[in-house]
């Protein structure tokens, strides 16, 4: 592949050539030349599409007191009933027909933009239901673009069949990731418990065409996503080929993260999956990127439950909640509240129709979640799967404390060679409540107990 020129630090978002293509960021102090390297596994899945050079500048200038993106929790409804859905319990408990008012959400997004114009630059539509089915979604998509903000969308893809939705996304999105998880109708119905894979594939193809037709070439990257599970594990190579053949810019493969898929893999199957993932990495070229778990590792949690009490000081150190507030019908300070009812209830603030809610949200951003709540909260911060992001932010801020000058550069990765050196890919095993772990060198650890409320990455 051709060598990529480092992005300008003034560019908010990475060019398509850089996105999904760096393994670390290096932050160099101006005073003594000391270098801090932060692995991409701590950043690539949390910074989303931001240019890390721009991001680090804003992080240091604001001392972390800034929202970089608003995560929209627009609806509890969905077109599908995927077995791997980790928001289903929360959505069922609240009712599967709740929708946020898009005009109210747009007004609140505009308010946050007025407060933090130099940092708030992205709106992510990622759940907890299917974001593109909320009434008035086309108005929301255009409204976000009219505010000068970018869109990152994670969708099951059914409503991409609507031309008005495709047009809005081609105009304002920087990334559209479509969860299809299969290459044939039978497998799709097993995984998504819905019909119509061919129609969704055609809709993605048309979205790529709409993107390419935008004057000046839209920056929107379009890709497919697969959560690896028993029903689709034989389709890894075919899924990557499908994404490339319909014109996508990337394909991403993920291990099941939140304990909703029961696994059932044996040792031979785990080894085959690892070999298949290694093979599809080789498909990466100048125009197409393959992301596999070993490249962008994230901790695996087998049960998400708020059990451990966190004190106010610990809550104040949560950069995830400060940088990525969840916006919908109502607000909870914990950023996991959009997908899990326990965390929502233990950090609940109030409806977004109330100005008092916005006042508390601003306190979370400026001073921290603990200060805003004014109390400890049962949020299990000691085992949070987002803690790696918080640690990365703390390391960068400490490294650049009292610095006047610094520089940040991206370290590109070589497909098939560069991986998170300590990360193990986990698969649910045949035996109930046990897992298999494939080490970076390809060797296998077996009969690992599934941790009930902790991180499997702690190597039981």
Top keywords for this entry?
single chain; 460 residues; alpha/beta; TIM Barrel; 3-stranded antiparallel β-sheet; 15 helices; globular; disordered C terminus; iron; rSAM_sf; metal-binding; S-adenosyl-L-methionine; Aldolase_TIM
Plain-language structure description:
The protein is built from 15 helices and 18 strands. With 460 residues, it is of the alpha/beta class. The protein has helices at residues 52-62, 88-94, 102-115, 137-146, 163-172, 185-192, 197-213, 236-245, 267-281, 312-316, 319-323, 341-346, 355-367, 369-373, 387-399; strands at 22-29, 35-39, 69-73, 122-127, 150-155, 173-179, 221-228, 250-255, 289-291, 309-310, 326-328, 330-332, 348-351, 377-378, 406-412, 425-428, 434-438, 444-449. The strands form five sheets. Strands 9-8-7-6-5-4-3-11 form an eight-stranded parallel beta sheet. It has a single domain, classed as Aldolase class I (TIM Barrel, Alpha-Beta Barrel), CATH 3.20.20.70.
Summarize it.
With 460 residues, the protein is α/β, with parallel strands linked by helices. Helices cover 32% and strands 20% of the residues. It has one domain (67-404): TIM Barrel.
In the CATH hierarchy, the third-tier topology is known as TIM Barrel
- Count of discrete structural domains: 1
Write down the oligomeric state. single chain
Radius of gyration: 21 Å
CATH homologous superfamily identity? Aldolase class I
Strand content: 15-25%
Q: Could you name the ranges where pLDDT drops below 50 across 5 or more consecutive residues?
A: 451-460
Summarize the main sheet. 8 strands, parallel
Helix share bin: 25-40%
Q: Report the end-to-end length measured between terminal Cα atoms.
A: 39 Å
CATH first level:
Alpha Beta
Structural class by secondary-structure content: alpha/beta
What is the number of helical segments per DSSP (H or I, 4+ residues)?
15
């Amino acid at each position: 592949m051709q060598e990529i020129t480092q992005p300008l630090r003034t560019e908010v978002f990475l060019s398509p050539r850089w996105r999904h293509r760096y393994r670390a960021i290096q932050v160099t102090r101006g005073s003594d030349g000391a270098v801090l390297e932060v692995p991409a596994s701590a950043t690539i899945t949390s910074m989303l599409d931001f240019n890390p050079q721009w991001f680090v500048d804003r992080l240091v200038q604001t001392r972390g007191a800034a929202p970089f993106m608003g995560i929209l929790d627009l609806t509890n409804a969905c077109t599908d009933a995927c077995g791997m859905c980790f928001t289903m319990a929360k959505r069922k408990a609240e009712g599967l027909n709740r929708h946020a008012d898009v005009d109210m959400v747009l007004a609140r997004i505009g308010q946050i933009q007025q407060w933090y114009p130099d940092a708030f630059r992205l709106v992510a539509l990622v759940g907890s239901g299917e974001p593109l089915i909320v009434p008035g979604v086309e108005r929301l998509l255009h409204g976000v673009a009219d505010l000068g903000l970018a869109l990152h969308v994670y969708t099951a893809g059914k409503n991409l069949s609507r031309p008005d939705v495709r047009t809005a996304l081609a105009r304002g999105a920087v990334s559209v990731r479509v969860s299809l998880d299969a290459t044939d109708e039978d497998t799709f119905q097993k995984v998504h418990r819905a019909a119509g894979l061919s129609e969704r594939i055609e809709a993605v193809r048309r979205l790529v065409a709409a993107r390419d037709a935008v004057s000046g070439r839209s920056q929107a990257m379009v890709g497919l996503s697969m959560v690896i599970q028993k029903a689709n594990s034989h389709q890894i190579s075919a899924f990557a080929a499908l994404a490339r053949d319909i014109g996508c810019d990337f394909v991403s493969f993920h291990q099941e993260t939140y304990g909703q898929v029961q696994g059932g893999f044996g040792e031979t199957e785990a080894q085959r999956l690892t070999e298949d993932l290694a093979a599809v990495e080789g498909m990466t070229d100048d125009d197409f990127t393959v992301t596999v778990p070993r490249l962008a590792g994230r901790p695996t949690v087998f049960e998400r439950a708020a059990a451990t009490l966190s004190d106010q000081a610990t809550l104040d150190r949560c950069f995830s909640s400060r940088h990525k507030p969840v916006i919908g019908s109502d607000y909870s300070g914990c950023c996991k509240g959009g997908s899990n009812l326990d965390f929502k209830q233990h950090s609940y603030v109030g409806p977004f129709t109330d100005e008092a809610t916005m006042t508390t949200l601003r306190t979370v951003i400026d001073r921290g979640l603990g200060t805003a709540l004014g109390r400890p909260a049962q949020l299990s911060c000691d085992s949070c799967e987002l803690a790696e992001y918080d640690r990365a932010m703390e390391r960068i801020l400490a490294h650049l404390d009292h610095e006047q000058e610094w520089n940040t550069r991206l370290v590109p990765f070589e497909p098939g060679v560069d991986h998170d050196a300590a990360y193990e890919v986990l698969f649910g095993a045949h035996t109930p409540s046990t897992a298999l772990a494939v080490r970076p060198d390809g060797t296998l650890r077996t009969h690992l107990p599934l941790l009930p409320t902790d991180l499997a990455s702690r190597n039981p």
